[in-house]
Amino acid sequence: MSTHPINDLDELTHQRVRLGVLALLSKVGELEFTRIRDDLGTTDGNLSRHLTALSGAGLVTIRKTSRDTERSGARSWISLSPTGAQALRKEVAALRALFAHVPTEGTAGAPETA
Amino acid sequence: MSTTPSLVDDLERLSNRPRSIVQREYWFPLTLFGLLALGAAGVFARWDPYTTASWAWWAILGPLGGLATGVWFARRSETLGVHDGRPGFYVALYVASAIGCSLCGSLVPEPWTYPCVFGVVGLLNLGIGLVDRYPLVTGVGAATLVVSGVAGAAELDPAAFSVVLGVALLIAAVIARLIR
Question: What would the mean pLDDT of A91-104 be, rounded to a whole number?
Fold first, then answer.
């Protein structure tokens, strides 16, 4: 029995910030915490929560380093794990499959032309 | 007509964002090597381009420029919060181009010696541009290869060749700086 593609969406990765984190990390080695925060337009606390969830599921790796300057503290560098890369690919494939099932803008309800 | 839903397009754009942030920093090596090329034109205008004194310009400043570029990107990557994860790739390209330039200098006769050296540098830029999917650097690499070929075939004076190359690199640097 076939299931609707909406069932292939993963609850963990489908959340907006988490999906954004995975997408940002997909083509680079590591991104610093504040870089991700600024690119996604979120807050420290919100991003921390989502990174904890992603890290707990083994989708991202968090590496902490200290800076030499006095004014700045430790920095966190985030990278995508192989499991995370696979999860992102699955999510995008599920989204594509889902969109293939629904009418795109401009076609919904449009009369057919000869 | 594209039928890809905008959400997937947005994800694709988002995934390219960190790399495009680092790509803006290409203005530095383009400016540096543009100025070195113009400086070389001055050296070649004063001394025979094929003397040791003239060769020393690129033999010393070329590798130093490559090193400065590496340091520049390493520092900017830290500041920008983006590690692209391919330092080994860039080191390999740098070593390969240094060997290529040395072989050109020692094995290739006039008037192809300098075009060969810059052809290798053009290939280096072409490789980086294609791997990084950065049209500006790809274009610079391709243009350098073409100009090198024309300069060799037309037996263009190395000083004039250096001016063309230097100006082209400085224009590319301005474009890299302006693109946001």
Answer: 79
Note the helical H segments in chain A. 11-14, 16-25, 33-40, 44-56, 82-101
Domain residue spans of chain B: 19-178
Nearest to A29 among B4, B17, B85 (CB): B85
Measured between alpha carbons, how far apart are the two ends of chain A, in Å?
A: 36
Best of A17, A28, A34 to mutate (most B CBs within 10 Å, chain B): A28
Q: Note the ipTM here.
A: 0.76
pTM (predicted TM-score)? 0.79
A24 and B14 within 8 Å at the Cβ level: the answer is: yes
The Cα of B21 is separated from the nearest Cα of chain A by a number of Å equal to: 10
Beta strands B82-83 and A30-32: pairing type? Answer: antiparallel
A44 touches chain B (CB under 8 A): no
Helix or strand holding residue B16 (H, E): helix B6-23
Q: State how far the alpha carbon of B42 is from the alpha carbons of A17, A22, B38, B63, B131, in Å.
A: 55, 50, 7, 19, 34
Q: What is the pLDDT of residues B3-51, one digit of tens each?
A: 556 788 888 888 888 988 888 888 999 999 999 999 999 998 888 888 8
Instruction: Note the pLDDT of residue B12.
Output: 87
pLDDT < 70 positions in chain B: 1-5, 180
Residue B88 touches partner A, C-beta closer than 8 Å: no
Point out the residue among A29, A33, A34 whose CB comes nearest to the CB of B84: A29
**Residues A23-54, buried b or exposed e (16+ Cβ, 10 A)?**
bbbbbbbbbbbebbbebbebeeeebeebbebb
Which residue in this structure is represented by tokens 């070593």? B95
In 3D, which of B133, B129, B25 has the Cα closest to residue B81? B25
Report d(CA B179, CA B177) in Å as an integer. 6
Report yes or no: B82 and B18 within 8 Å, Cβ to Cβ: yes
Torsions phi, psi of A66, nearest 5? -105, 150
